[in-house]
Amino acid sequence: MFDLIIKNALIVNGSGSTPFHGTVCIKNSKIEHISKIPNTILNTKEIINAEGMMLTPGFIDIHGHSDISILAAPEATGKLSQGITTEVCGNCGLSAFPITNLNRDHLKQLFDHYNTDLTWSTFANYAETVQKVNPGINIASLCGHNTLRAAVVGYEKQELNNCELSRMEQLHNEALNQGAIGTSTGLLYLPGCFANFAELRLLAKTVANSKKIFTSHLRSEGNKLLEAIDEFIQVAEVANIKHIHISHFKTAGKANWHKLNSALLRISKASDAGIKITADRYPYIESMTQLSAYMPSPYSEMDDIKLKKHLKHAANFAKFIHTLNDHFTPEDWKNKRVVSTNSSTIPPTLLGETIYSISANLTIPPAELIAQLLRDDAPGTMGSSKGMSEKNMLTILQQPFVCCSTDESARPADFSIGRSHPRGFGSCAEFIKRLSPSMPIEQIIQKMTSLPGNIFNIKQRGLIAENYFADLVLIDLAKFADAEFANFANPHKLSPGIEKVWVNGKIAYSNYSLSPNRHGTVLKYN
After folding, report:
1. Domains defined along the chain, listed by start
2. Nearest residue to 289 via CA among 249, 339, 239
3. What is the pLDDT of residues 39-87, one digit of tens each?
4. Which of 224, 266, 458, 473 maximizes the CB count within 10 A of its CB?
5. How confident is the model at residue 104 (pLDDT cuts 50, 70, 90)?
6. Which H or E run includes 454?
7. Which residues have a Cβ under 8 Å from the Cβ of 42 and sit 6 or more positions away?
8. What is the pTM of this model?
9. What is the CA radius of gyration of the chain?
10. Which residues contact 335 (CB under 8 A, 6 or more apart)?
11. Positive/negative CA dihedral, 227, 228, 232, 233
12. Mean pLDDT across 87-113
């Protein structure tokens, strides 16, 4: 007897093959039988008639940041409500491990708004902690180079000596051997930005030996985009890595929009030379990161904890305002938003608005507004920037090696642990909407399921196939077609048309409500 039969669905199985109407039978946590003949094999505990609906594999978000939010809000509303059943976290060089006395206090302050104790040290300890909260989605994690480096030497600007490199290699191997899915760098951020080529080469060689994925938030996504791609390829070459992955591939800043063709040419040439390059991208033209990341030098070389302390002194605060006034124009303030903050300077009703608009509403000059936010809450103040091209975004999304991602953490529908970029609730729906005019639905779904699954070597997920785990999404296409999805004014809007989501064969989300039980697991890859 089966636990569940879903019949009469339009099955888009994730492989890119032609959709077909049929029946999917689930037993325990897996898909046991698939039939193209309707209304057959009815010996089951439950039947769902999915006529008029599309059944797909659960979406795989290979660029998420739910490392700590999954502990604070394990129900993962923002992910499940858009059909995501598996997330890879630990991206952009920031993972929840390894933790030592050199980075524990910093990470505690960085994640303070989640009210979660960081009691672990290793990936194995972290995985146990996540499993104990029964996550709503499956979680896999990369080992982040920034966290790894800080575990050895902290967050100061310095070159690692041989002893420190050896210690970093030891901790890196430990994380990969314990089941981390691969390794990420965040070369735009502290302290990863201090890494030289020799350090990156050692990191890459450890990844190569593990035969796992190596991903990078490139050193630059704008003015030095092409040089950053070259650096990543060169690191792969010297380490003999045959597959690398670019995180949230973009051309940031209007002055850099023309570089897309050159970037794609570099990727093509690398492929011809034996290095496969894949990428992910969220379907929005506004990025989001810590507001501090947009600040000019020397503040760009301070981590958020240090910057917050620095601005507590009146003289530093005044100098910071003066520097911002020299560096930014009124147009810059119109192109940047404050998405979330724990500072009381901005009332919640103004979050998601541009800095220019918030400044006018509060009658606080923009530079002073930013200074107050970063003085109060540099780690938790998130900003977005409009510096991307719509045309380039669509070109990138259409590339056969690019899959969908959120670049966001899992959050509840309320704002109890922070306010999300719209991609935190709407990436998957928006991805389908953006590509539907130019691409068959089976190819779009492939870019959200089996493609990310294959890139990260995620076993038995990403396809509707027998003996695969029953991570599934049921979509009402009639509701989906003309729907409005999450936006900056309403970033936690649940995606219309996502009717049901199953995780490991159990219902996780139905009729826009979460199941009272959670069925995700921590995925380990040894």
Report:
1. 4-56+463-514 (2.30.40.10), 60-285+387-455 (3.20.20.140), 294-383 (no CATH)
2. 339
3. 555 688 899 999 999 999 999 999 999 999 999 999 999 999 999 999 9
4. 473
5. very high
6. helix 450-455
7. 5
8. 0.95
9. 23
10. 354, 385, 386, 387
11. negative
12. 96
